[in-house]
Amino acid sequence: MTVHSFQQHFDEKIDNDVAIEPRDWMPDDYRKTLIRQISQHAHSEIVGMLPEGNWITRAPSLRRKAVLLAKVQDEGGHGLYLYSAAETLGITRDEMYDQLHTGKAKYSSIFNYPTLTWADMGAIGWLVDGAAIMNQVPLCRTSYGPYARAMVRVCKEESFHQRQGYEIMMALANGTDVQKKLAQDALNRWWWPSIMMFGPPDDNSPNTAQSMRWRIKRFTNDELRQKFIDVTVEQAKLIGLTIPDPDLKWNEERGHYDYGTIDWNEFWDVVKGNGPCNKERLETRKKAWEEGAWVRDAALAYSKKRKARKENKKDNLAA
Amino acid sequence: MNQSTNQLIYTLQLADNALILGHRISEWCGHGPVLEQDIALTNTALDHLGQARSFYQHAAEQFNLMPAEVKKQQFASPALQQKIDKGENLDEDDLAYLRDGWDFRNVLLVEQPNKDWAYTVVRSFFADVFNFYFYKELQKSKDAVLAAIAEKSLKEVTYHLRWSSEWMIRLGDGTEESHERMQTALNERWAYSGELFEMSAADKAMAEAGIGVDIAAIKPLWDAHVDGILQEATLEKPANKWMQSGGKDGRHSEHLGYILAELQFMQRAYPNMEW
Fold first, then answer.
1. pLDDT tens column, B85-119
2. What residues of A are in contact with residue B170 (Cβ under 8 Å)?
3. Which DSSP category does B220 fall into?
4. Which of A27, A38, B71, B252 can bridge A86 by disulfide, Cβ–Cβ 3.0-4.6 Å?
5. CATH code assigned at B74
């Protein structure tokens, strides 16, 4: 087949919703886009363990501690599936880590915000995981097979995370005055960064059109953002919390909530590295990786020794 | 001390060991040397936490059945004294979050800091070998709840022991650096291994009653297992015989205070609330 017919074959698969698999021919840019997106997603899971990991040792009850531990562990598991999915595209996990550690690869900016109170565990589960689900459910049907299958597993667990977050908020909202204050304060701080998680508005999102064409993306940033806002506003009302947006108003005609102007300067600032915790998060990841080097080296050395010993034994038996 | 007080203290010893070890291990979450191990270790932390909860729930049930005047003598904590005065029942969280260090009964080993992967593996290894033989015996307890917790925990501990034994060998027999780090950690932590087998008054009373385990009898089994693994790991058994102790009597290292300051922060700063 010529390159042209490879391309045609690929396009037909995309148009007919047939999954692209690792051994299939794919355009270079498709591969690059996927590596960027999947590794960014994997990095987000791993970096995302840190802000919540902050509160594992301080959780207010043993039950909450167990649930939070299990949740953060799940994030690690998601990172693992996603790194594996990306590896099918011809990049190693070590290379991806290197891109993360050198700042070449990004991760979700939301994790550059600090977790200041216990209520932030509620807000992250409810809003951040809630937004992640909106983004990720359509990815269960994304065109690249290994990514789509990883996302099916991820989404199942994320919906449990979202519920546990909302449940924390509910307990606070039904609690004492100071607990209500904790909940509202967390919502105030996490609301805008959460709705920024869907990425820049459609008219300023350079990758959207191509990703939609490749069916890597299924909905635009603004469509998903709107869906998230519509759902979340109702959930906030249900537990008596106020969304910190004075312009938020139901629009009968559109059948959606109108919302205030998003401060995209803040978004780009955080993306560029100027968020409150960018430095700490990256340094923490690098530190874990560097301090773990001797452990990884030793594990490798030991497995080589073991293999050599086994082979020696075989040789001796044969002789 | 009467039998029910001994049984309460006995249950708390087990609960506190599990909670504090789980707390220390959970500090690794998100910081492990390799992602798979981060996940594995978090799983272990969850197991310890689960065991701690079962023991605390059982301890709380025992406590709530005690006469008020006996209750008053158990814990010095003003927060718990207030609850007792009001006639409130205690639950798992009260026991974990509202006692001060001197009422914690865990061994000193489990509160020692993680430092690095070598120290963490050695600490877990000592505890896992002990727990493995301990839970095997505790399954025969006349206290049906303790026996049931032991049966469930033994499954988890069997996995923990495999994990820590493998890491002892892998790192001991890995590179020169890993060998040296392991030998250092082993030497440093050795003095905390003896307390595992010290029989407190509660241990003695419960072993006699067929509720607890004669832990002194576990020592030879522990030694044999440890010797075998150390040999395979090409590590030398430390020669020092002198052992630290005090945890089981509530005399802890300085580390426990900081653990509790963190662990109990929310319940102390925002008392009497539902979370």
1. 999 999 999 999 999 999 999 999 999 999 999 99
2. 298-299, 302
3. H
4. A38
5. 1.20.1260.10
